[in-house]
Amino acid sequence: MTTTESPTEKPSGLDLSWVDPDVRPQDDLFAHVNGRWLATHEIPDDRSQDGAFRVLRDRAEDQVHEIVEECASSAEPGTEARKVGDLYRSFMDVERAEELGTAPLRPLLDEIYAATDRAALATVLGRRQREGRAALFGEFIATDLKDSSRYLVNLNQAGLGLPDESYYGDEGDPEIRTKYVEHLQRLAELVGLAAPERVAEQVMDLETALADASWDRVLNRDAEKTYTLMTRDELRAAAPGFDWAEWESALGVPAHAYDEVIVRQPSFVTAAGELWAGRPLEQWQAWLALTVAGSCAEFLSADLVEADFDFFGRTLSGTPELRERWKRGVSLVEGALGEAVAKIYVERHFPPHAKERITELVDNIVEAYRRSISTLDWMSPATRERAQDKLGKFTPKVGYPEKWKDYSDLQIDPADLLGNAGRAAEWRHDFEYAKLGGPVDHDEWLMTPQTVNAYYHPRLNEIVFPAAILQPPFFDPDADDAANYGGIGAVIGHEIGHGFDDQGSRYDGDGNLTDWWEAADRTEFESRAKMLIDQYDGLSPAGLPDHKVNGSLTVGENIGDLGGLTISLKAYGIAHEGSEPPVIDGLTGEQRVLFGWAQVWRAVTRDAEAIRRLTTDPHSPPDLRCNAVVTNLDTFHEAFGVTEDDGLYTDPDRRVRIW
């Protein structure tokens, strides 16, 4: 490969100090770009994974920590900043938490055991659910999949203490199940329940029955199958054994809230209703008591905090040490008063010129998609036209929302940590239900600006990029374009790509679940998606050869990754139309885009966490998010001269090309 150096005033945006010269990019791009880091980096004891995303999250966490500390020490009484400070102070008051022990929890447990029948217990369940402490049927408010102009309640399966239903069956790890029962028994002992061993066994037995009725993660990805519109009467008829009226009343929701509801897993609702009516009241009390105790553990004394972390941190994720208390306090504030913090965060840490540069990047990515769709040889003109219509209706949101949430109704008491957590959950619950019957709020953000992430919302047809992800190594407004296109550019392309993945492609430009594809085009798309599923099904993350990726679970994210990088490379070309990109550090522009892609997935993961994610995470492992994508790209093969003898070579007729 012959290159000619060109002078440049901008830094490359790449950290080449971690490149492993002993690994060729043609064999393993991920290990070549990140090899020295992978070989030497030790995961901090309070984490199950560490990497490029974590660098940004650490930076944002430190910045938010500084803000909440200032709010705690100097905010004026009666201000929103004072609420931030008081909530943080309530969490940091370790002395009071130890002094109180389980006393704040006791009234919640007493109310459970005071219930003399299922109707009374349903009332208690509804109250605890509004406080975010338990759920048999999860509920959330979202636009109607088939009428995006209105909000509806969505009912979701819930009730499990382990990450998902697969942990309870034969395919799950029996050692995990044994340790979970031991954890439940320990929790019962700590909160003073009678016969803790029996209580733990009752809970495991009931959760196993709920797991048997639960849908798996692959089925739950199907937008059509998880859409059943029911009236209140139809919902109650589907599960006549459950005390709906008492539960609904205790939730404190508007009278019309359940006139119509989307039931995502109807068979689960029916089965759970039968279990509610058929299992002993004592067993349901045990389940609710330990569910509530587990959800409250992090806000109580150290013995409960440690017991909770010992199982969910050490056992499930392989994380040796609990995060420092201030970090957990920051997380609490973020969840409860995120946009109050965001106002200060954006003012301090998101310069206006960054928004201008990222907006230009978004425009080029959208234009690249437009050009790509217009030339797709596998899609008919009719479907291409509708795809262009959807693309034209995309709404990008960059940095921060145009309007902020109003927390004036949320009461925070610096001496009542558990109460603060419950009231914050109630505020969120009531905020969501207040949307029902009103116009759809297109200005709302579902992430705070200080969150290191991004998302595509199919029901609103919008892509959202919070300020915190718009930083190196994903984005540097002062660096050369190539690394930015390989980093945040590919993320932007990925999120737009979700609008055209196996599920997002079922929504039209207005966010309605409707079939806008010609039948032959849908068949061809699914054939290409199946090729990608088959590719990933045979892959294992580095160091875990006996554990495989679930191609069906991850196909949406894999389509997003493949489309994201493909389109970002095209957008980079658009940005440099009429000029030759410079060679920097011996790398051509396209090579630097691909290096940038490999750089953002730099990560190491503990084995227990990697195995857990293979079961529950719709994203592929980091090394595969890099390599399994580039091996499908003609541009990668050309940029690095990849041949049949190289590890990442894929025959042209086996390369998956979608967008």
CATH superfamily of the largest domain: Collagenase (Catalytic Domain)
Q: Give the overall shape.
A: globular
Could you say what the CATH architecture of the largest domain is? 3-Layer(aba) Sandwich
Classify the beta-strand content into a percent band: 5-15%
**Largest sheet, if any?**
4 strands, mixed
What does this structure look like?
With 659 residues, the chain is of the alpha/beta class. It folds into 2 domains: 287 residues, Collagenase (Catalytic Domain) (3-Layer(aba) Sandwich); 176 residues, Neutral endopeptidase , domain2 (Neutral endopeptidase, domain 2, Orthogonal Bundle). It contains 25 helices and 9 strands. The strands form 3 sheets. The chain has a 4-stranded mixed beta sheet. Strand 7 and strand 8 form a beta hairpin. The longest helix is centred in the middle third of the chain and has 25 residues. The radius of gyration is 26 Å and the shape is globular. The two termini are 28 Å apart. The N terminus is likely disordered.
